[in-house]
Amino acid sequence: MSAATVLLLVFGGALAVEGLGWALAPDAMRRASAEAMAMLDSQRLSRLGLLCTALGLLMIWIGVRLHG
Q1: Rounded CA gap, 68 and 57, in Å?
Q2: How far apart are CA 41 and CA 39, in angstroms?
Q3: Is 66 helix (H, G, I), strand (E, B) or coil?
Q4: pLDDT of residue 68
Q5: What whole-number distance in Å separates Cα of residue 38 and Cα of residue 44?
Q6: Where along the chain do its domains lie?
Q7: Whole-model pTM?
Q8: Residue 57 and residue 4: Cα distance in Å, rounded?
C-alpha cells in the first residue's frame, strides 16, 4: 500500500467520522465546538493543532512501517 493510499484512507476516515457527528447532531456539535473554542486562547489552540498534527503524522508513519 502506497503512502498516498494510506493518507487517503486516514483523511477519508477522519472526515467521515467528523461528518457523521455534524450530520446526526448539528446543534450539539455547534455548541460543543463553540464551548471548546471559548475555553482556549489562541496560543493553546495553536499548540493543540501542532500536537494533533504530530500525532497524526506519527500514526501514519507507524501504519506505513507496519504495513511495509
Answers
A1: 16
A2: 7
A3: helix
A4: 65
A5: 11
A6: 3-67
A7: 0.59
A8: 13
